[in-house]
Amino acid sequence: MKDSVYVWVLITTLALVTVTIMSVMDFPFNWVFYCTVLGQALIVLMVYKVLTDNYKTDKTFKDFYEDNPIGNRLN
Question: How far is it between the farthest Cα atoms of the chain?
């Protein structure tokens, strides 16, 4: 993924962590509600940005996991 996609993931994560902190600290319900709705919209936007990212790779399912290539295994 490109760096711009990571920004959307970070923004969404921070927004939802903020909602959690606000609900634990007994913020007014309307603040928590609107931040929750904003967080849900950010999730949808983040998923769209990640799925439409112009990312190319030469890896296939035959490569197995990147950290443990199947070609390095001993029988």
Answer: 61
